[in-house]
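Entry for nicotinamide-adenine-dinucleotide complex. Fields follow.
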Amino acid sequence: MTVEVGIVGAAGRMGQMLIQAVEQREDARVSAAAEHPKSEAVGRDAGSVAGLNPLGVKIANDAASVFKNSQVVIDFTLPEATVYNLQQAVETGTALVIGTTGFDAAGKARIEEAARKVPIVFAPNFSVGVNLMFKVAAEVAQVLEENFDIEIIEAHHRNKVDAPSGTAIGLGDAIAEAIGRSLPEVAIYGREGHTGARDRQTIGFSTIRGGDIVGDHTALFAGEGERIEITHRASSRMTFASGAVRAALWVLGKEPKLYDMRDILNFR
Ligand code: NAD
């Protein structure tokens, strides 16, 4: 069986990779694609936009047609676009994979609400390595207990629009959960001026933006006389794209629920 996969945000950095990742597989094909109405890619062939041979799939200016013509849709766009797509997924009963980051609490609540009606995979990072890092960092935090300061450092390309990265927050969440802390209560997202001594309960975040960095994340555990650093570096967006396509094929036919990469990798 060939699974019909729709791509929203098809001309974006991730959209192009997703088209390539779907077309690399024998069990899936790009069935429909959409872009922002103002994108120059609207009306062009999705394969050509992604640097492949033409696929015979024209990029639409509205995601609604993508949901009507696909069994599962992958969305790496912007939070406001994803919120619109949730409505389309529910109306058409289509499974959805969300890679978009930068949602506020209301946006996350909309995702949870939609996941009661259709199966949704939502992950801040679809790389297998990063998800393994979440698991390892959580275990390290449990062993080290209260005696280490926890910091998360992330670096991305100059065009990334949200900070800290969704992956950094996900990493902080996994660590906080493992040691019984609540990330919103302990997160420090910036330091400047006279900050006073560090509170050991906090989890600090540092953000670097520059050049073409695909995505680096470090969990730093600093104690007296020693420190542990766990680092993941992504060197190609294909790692996110192939993970998202794997998630799309996995979620098809599952019961309506909010899943993440840990479900797909059996890390629970
Ligand atoms: P990008 O800006 O290159 O691409 C986003 C695309 O979405 C653009 O082409 C834009 O025109 C399109 N878009 C915007 N509004 C739209 C709408 N209403 N309908 C259809 N298309 C619309 O960005 P990117 O680097 O590809 O990243 C996209 C998102 O994915 C970001 O939130 C980023 O943080 C996230 N991301 C997640 C992962 C992961 O593994 N979860 C990995 C990389 C990037």
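NOTE: The radius of gyration is 19 Å.
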